[in-house]
Amino acid sequence: MDDCLFCKIAERDIPCEKVYEDQDVLAFLDIHPINPGHTLVIPKKHAADISALTRADFERLMGCVHALAPIVKKAVQADGINIGMNNGGAAGQLVFHAHLHIIPRYQNDGFRHWHGNPYGNGEIRAVAEKIRSAVAN
Fold first, then answer.
1. Contacts of 64 (CB under 8 A, 6+ apart)
2. I need a surface site. Which of 43, 102, 111, 134 has the fewest CB within 10 A?
3. Which residues act catalytically here (predicted)?
4. Is 13 a residue whose pLDDT tops 90?
5. What is the CATH number of the domain that holds 15?
6. Around Cβ 47, how many Cβ atoms within 10 Å?
7. Tell me, what's the pLDDT at 30?
8. Residue 20: burial class (beta carbons within 10 Å; 0-12, 13-18, 19+)
């Protein structure tokens, strides 16, 4: 895509601090990291989000994340790792090219997780039924 930041990075039109690359996937450091070592893993082929990825492309992307996460953790001596993928503006996606975050975490690093919203009476079963019904179709 002509105006996609991550496509431009994958095509080398915009520089990045690359940490891994193969024929399908590129991994580079986030320029606005949660913590040092915060890595973005993208498919080189444009897909806006998870729903636009083929299963094979998603599996290649996750295979790369699976391999890189422990390497990043060890390299920056992190206490833990968060893996995340934002899909859609409401979920916090800022660049509309599918990507996963490998976020090194440290005890007391100040990064806050999301809060939970408990289900109302009977709501959990209704939501589960909607999902089960959609899976069955």
1. 20, 22, 25, 27, 41
2. 134
3. 99
4. yes
5. 3.30.428.10
6. 18
7. 97
8. middle
Q: Over the stretch 98-120, which tens digit does the pLDDT of each residue have?
A: 999 999 999 999 988 888 999 99
Q: pTM above 0.85?
A: yes
Q: How many CA atoms lie within 13 A of 98 on its CB side?
A: 21
Distance CA 23, CA 123 (A): 45
Please pick, among 99, 101, 113, 115, the residue that the annotation labels catalytic. Answer: 99
Q: Is 99 a catalytic residue?
A: yes
* CA dihedral of residues 60, 65, 66, 69 (deg, nearest 10): 160
Q: How many domains does the chain have?
A: 1
27-34 mean pLDDT: 97
What's the mean pLDDT in 79-105?
Answer: 97
- Residue numbers of the domain that contains 89: 5-136
